Q: What sequence folds into this?
């Protein structure tokens, strides 16, 4: 194409957040290069079944009973006192515009009776009114991904942006001022340095920290780990949401919260609805409550999974059924889930199916303001890898797709304002080089003078953490070359046992020391880079969870089961300034040092 030989904005990630940012930035005249770790639709977005929450009262066919105040209240309630109120209000106020933009991109949300009829808006856990838009029944994320990918391919074909597929972020590149000016990426067997005036991380979450997850294989925390190495501030990493109802079968297929919203119930091995006495909302309680009760009940019955019972569900009155049929209704309303359940030989219209909690969403991430800016100049983050503060300690169901759409557009707007033509540096692309094992490839790149360190910046985030909290430094010693070789399966099992649905101080301490003893792999390959990223993020999650000596939202400690009002605030962390400083190239020696994190207080 005829674009300049360098990108001005590098967007890393191809889910709703990355695609929205890339399309909006390109629409504002910026030179955009989009990186996708795999194919464009290998994302968490495509797996989203439940829908997208939005305040649609002012849109044709919208929910007249909803309001900004009501959606804000529900979000803050689920967030358990740790949301950023201003960010939540931005999320809800901008939601109508986000839905309008998705429709303009071609997303076909479900309607009651034809193109001009009202939208079908569902009710999910902890929502006061039905405000969840769906597409294709339980295929909302797939429809959104389809439409945004189509728009992206059109933009690529017309020369408005570039797309690099099967290209993995390895690390960020900073200049001598500490500003991010590009990224080091792995493109097949080639190591490439891509220069840019700004980098937007939209790399999604880190579900692969755990053995049971609804996330795709690409969700290995790449953006968060790279941001930590670059000195960026992260926030709220102790808050990991476990979806209560993944099918207890290989693949952990997610059974959407919308199924419970439409009448499914949870039963123990005796057939009793055990959630009725645990929470006033029973099966529609916040996800953390449902997940904990499922784990407790399963443990109490010897590890046998609990059961999701949909056998009494029928089509609503007036839906055209003379005699409502459960099987027909489930197949039409939840076609993706129906096919997945039946693929395992289960007929969920006739018998309850076994379910288990699975790692689903990371509320924490790279700390940003409400326009995607991080604490590192030139670095932005959006979507699940970012921590805007909208989710607090426990994400409200179906707010995640909305966050990607709202803050993707806002980040693009910020980029257009922040990158002024007279300030733009015009760096070059470096020639792709084949990787070689060990230090040989390292020396080859460093000979070009491309190796830089990442000084810890001190500006760029709203209410930026400015000073150390007393006693807030966590040091995990691990001499270079020492330690137990990293094994992903053993690592995931340790994370599940120590920082899973149920936690306690002794388990977290044991996890911290176990992770400190691990030696990450030194190879330069996609699996090795993923493993290093998982270990970095896992250590940060364990540190944050150990520090929060209370239970709040998705973070539940059996030794501290009651929330403490004094600890309701958010927690901010960064790599300790005394930690070894590595260049942007991940060499074997770069990753033998252990991670050291310091907690910092917000201004």
A:
């Amino acid at each position: 194409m005829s674009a300049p030989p360098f990108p001005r904005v590098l967007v890393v990630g191809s889910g709703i957040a990355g695609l929205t940012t890339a399309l909006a930035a390109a629409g504002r005249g910026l030179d955009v290069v989009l990186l996708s770790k795999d194919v464009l639709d290998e994302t968490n977005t495509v797996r989203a079944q439940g829908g997208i929450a939005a305040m649609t009262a002012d849109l044709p066919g919208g929910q007249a009973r909803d309001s900004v105040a009501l959606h804000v209240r529900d979000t803050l309630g689920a967030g358990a006192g740790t949301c950023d109120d201003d960010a939540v209000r931005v999320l809800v106020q901008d939601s109508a515009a986000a839905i309008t933009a998705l429709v303009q991109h071609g997303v076909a949300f479900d309607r009651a009776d034809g193109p001009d009829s009202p939208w079908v808006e569902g009710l999910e856990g902890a929502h006061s009114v039905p405000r969840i838009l769906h597409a294709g029944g339980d295929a909302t994320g797939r429809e959104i991904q389809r439409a945004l990918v189509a728009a992206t391919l059109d933009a690529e074909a017309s020369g408005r942006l570039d797309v690099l597929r099967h290209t993995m972020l390895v690390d960020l590149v900073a200049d001598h001022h500490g500003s991010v000016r590009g990224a080091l990426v792995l493109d097949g067997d080639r190591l490439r340095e891509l220069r840019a005036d700004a980098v937007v991380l939209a790399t999604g979450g880190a579900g692969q920290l755990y053995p049971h997850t609804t996330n795709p294989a690409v969700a290995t925390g790449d953006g968060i780990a790279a941001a930590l190495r670059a000195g960026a501030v992260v926030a709220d990493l102790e808050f990991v949401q476990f979806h209560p109802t993944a099918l207890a079968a290989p693949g952990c297929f997610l059974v959407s919260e919308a199924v419970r919203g439409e009448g499914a119930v949870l039963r123990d091995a005796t057939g009793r609805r055990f959630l009725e006495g645990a929470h006033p909302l029973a099966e529609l309680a916040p996800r953390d409550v449902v997940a904990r009760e499922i784990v407790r009940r399963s443990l109490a019955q010897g590890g046998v999974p609990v059961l999701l019972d949909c056998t009494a569900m029928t089509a609503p009155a007036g839906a055209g059924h003379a005699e409502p049929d459960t099987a027909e209704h489930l197949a039409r309303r939840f076609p993706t889930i129906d096919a997945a359940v039946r693929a395992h030989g289960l007929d969920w219209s006739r018998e309850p199916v076994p379910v288990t909690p699975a790692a689903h969403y990371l509320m924490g991430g790279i700390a940003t303001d409400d326009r995607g800016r991080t604490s590192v100049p030139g670095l932005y983050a959006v979507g699940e890898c970012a921590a805007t503060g909208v989710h607090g300690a426990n994400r409200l169901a179906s707010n995640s797709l909305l966050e990607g759409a709202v803050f993707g557009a806002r980040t693009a707007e910020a980029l257009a304002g922040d990158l002024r033509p007279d300030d733009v540096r015009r760096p070059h692309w470096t020639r792709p080089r084949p990787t070689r094992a060990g230090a040989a490839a390292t020396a080859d790149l460093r000979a070009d003078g491309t190796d830089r360190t990442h000084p810890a910046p001190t500006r760029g985030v709203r209410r930026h953490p400015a000073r150390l909290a007393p006693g807030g430094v966590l040091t995990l010693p691990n001499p270079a070359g020492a330690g137990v070789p990293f094994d992903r399966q053993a690592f995931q099992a340790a994370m599940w046992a120590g920082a899973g649905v149920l936690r306690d101080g002794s388990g977290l301490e044991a996890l911290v020391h176990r992770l400190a003893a691990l030696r990450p792999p030194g190879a330069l390959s996609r699996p090795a880079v993923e493993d290093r990223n998982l270990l970095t993020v896992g250590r940060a999650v364990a540190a944050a969870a150990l520090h929060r000596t209370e239970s709040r939202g998705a973070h539940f400690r059996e030794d501290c089961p009651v929330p403490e009002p004094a600890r309701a605030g958010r927690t901010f962390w960064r790599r300790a300034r005394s930690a070894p400083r590595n260049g942007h190239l991940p060499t074997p020696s770069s990753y033998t040092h252990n991670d050291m994190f310091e907690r910092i207080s917000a201004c």
The longest strand covers residues 353-362. The chain is about 30% helix and 15% strand. The first helix runs from residue 16 to 27.
